[in-house]
Amino acid sequence: MVPSVAADDVVILEPGWEARLEAFLAPRAATSMFLRANMRRGGLADSGGPAQGTYAALLRDGAIAGVVAHGWTGVLQLQADPADVARLAAAALARTGRPLNGAVGPWAQLAALRGDLPEAAAEPTFLSREVLFTLDLDALTPPAAVLEGRWTCRPARHEEIGFLAVWRARYRREELRFPERPGDLERATAELFPLVARGAFFVLEAGGGPAAMCSFNAELPDMVQVGGVWTPPELRCRGHARGVVGGALLAARARGVRRAVLFTAEGNLPAQAAYRSLGFKEAGDYGIVMYPQA
């Protein structure tokens, strides 16, 4: 049973709050995929396991009016008024005791966090204002090469994790500006296992071999969020990224998913053009910041 609280309190959510949290997040679906998907997978209890996090919420008259979760990876997930983000983040960080490794959320909220939270004063290793895109999958327009079977997009296989871990480590260094460190391949491999196991990691085969990859980094029954889109440099400028995303979304649509969301850097005009060609439409902005990790 959900306990009663006074108006305008900050509380740490516990099991029993799921319906109220979903009622707050669902109208903000495009920018709440990490929060909603992780709550479904990991619940509201936090023992540091995969998909788990500590959710600090602002309560006004018994209804959730903002939430910040500090996830198992040390990354904050934001969905609150910018004026409330810092105190919610501070409450979540104080409860978990985990380091602050980064934050994701609508750009205005991310900017407020960086300006107000002392722990966020460190120089980030990566900071990006992103363009947010959404797509009704009825309007999906995949490349002809995928529709005609000249290219094949399929879920990755367990035996492919070895070379895909190399790709993912390269993606993290190139796209997220992660510094190269010992153990990068082991970390990438650990990230891949659950994605491959649940069929959320995709490979495009073109020209006789693998040519691009992407994943669903957050999934709901009716909506997926695309991430980790990457093509090796020697295979770029051939439409492969568009092919892998289009093929992955065809598979999602076939199992009843209705909408997709993704985001890409403001300056990445080729990626934006590729996503628009698939039918995606701009829906606002988003932000990512990552901090140095021990």
The CATH class assignment of the largest domain is Alpha Beta
Our Rg estimate from Cα atoms comes to 19 Å
The total count of helices amounts to 9
What's the main sheet like? 12 strands, mixed
Strand content: 25-35%
CATH superfamily of the largest domain: Gcn5-related N-acetyltransferase (GNAT)
Reading the helices and strands in chain order gives: EHHEEEHEHEHEHHEEEHEHE
Residues in helices, as a percent range: 25-40%
Which class of secondary structure composition applies to the elements? alpha+beta
Nutshell version of this structure?
By secondary structure, this protein is an alpha+beta fold. The chain has helices spanning 18-25, 33-42, 82-96, 107-116, 144-147, 161-175, 184-197, 240-254, 269-277, and strands spanning 9-12, 53-60, 63-71, 75-79, 102-105, 126-136, 152-155, 201-206, 209-220, 223-230, 259-265, 281-290.
